[in-house]
Design brief:
The chain has 228 residues and is of the alpha/beta class. The protein contains eight helices and six strands, in the order E-H-H-H-H-H-E-H-E-H-E-H-E-E.
Length: 228
């Protein structure tokens, strides 16, 4: 059965893990302190959120920076950090220094599914702003017109079934008519619990035994229907 919607993860699914961890993360970490200093008024709400998360309302900006660097190094999925990372990446993408990596087969698959009228969504721990930057400035051009919408962890954790129920409710499509793609089995388990169809992406190494349908790339997922 062809799904009415496909929701896809980013890291390890549409884009390489190395791009995020070896390019994007070092870029934002190296510029975090200077960005906060140069945009003191703009980042005020972000620093307030850091203080709240840290449980220390008296923390000064240097303390907030130090705490965010700790979270950055630990790859913590904290909203205030993700928002700041997105702002820093924005400068890199808009200047042309950064180009979003998307697997060629993922680009082909997304275009193929979009042409077939399947609604496409992104669900990632990265902020919605960061998602749009990555797909809006890829080596293959602007891919954002392919997507109907974006979700981040503001809707819930990616390993929580409730998040997927909320996504289905928001897009107005029954869970059984939605396919979720990810390289993380715990995310697939949560989506499956919510009633989604799921497929595990195994981009490195042989396809392994898993409790889910698995694919090495997007080419084998809902391939083009060939005429009889």
């Amino acid at each position: 059965m062809t799904p009415r919607a496909i929701v896809t993860d980013i890291e390890g699914t549409t884009s390489s893990l190395s791009f995020v961890h070896d390019i994007l993360f070092p870029y934002s970490r190296a510029r975090l302190a200077n960005y906060v200093a140069a945009h003191a008024q703009d980042v005020g709400p972000i620093l307030d959120a850091v203080r709240q998360e840290a449980g220390d309302p008296s923390m000064d900006s240097d303390g907030c920076i130090a705490r965010m660097l700790e979270w950055h190094d630990a790859d913590r999925k904290i909203g205030s950090l993700k928002t700041l990372q997105g702002l820093i990446w924005k400068t890199g993408f808009e200047s042309g220094v950064l180009k979003g990596h998307v697997y060629a087969d993922a680009v082909d698959g997304l275009r193929r599914w979009h042409a077939r009228g399947i609604a496409l969504y992104i669900y990632s721990s990265g902020s919605i702003e960061a998602q749009k930057l990555l797909f809006g400035h890829t080596e293959q051009g602007d891919l954002t017109p392919l997507f109907t919408g974006h979700f981040d962890t503001a809707i819930g954790g990616k390993k929580e079934a409730g998040a997927y129920r909320a996504i289905a409710a928001q897009i107005g499509i029954p869970p059984a008519d939605i396919l979720f793609l990810s390289d993380i089995e715990a995310e697939l388990a949560a989506a499956q619990e919510a009633g989604f169809a799921v497929t595990l992406l195994v981009r490195e190494g042989p396809l392994r035994e898993a409790g889910f349908p698995a694919a090495a790339d997007f080419d084998s997922i809902l391939p083009e229907v060939q005429p009889a």
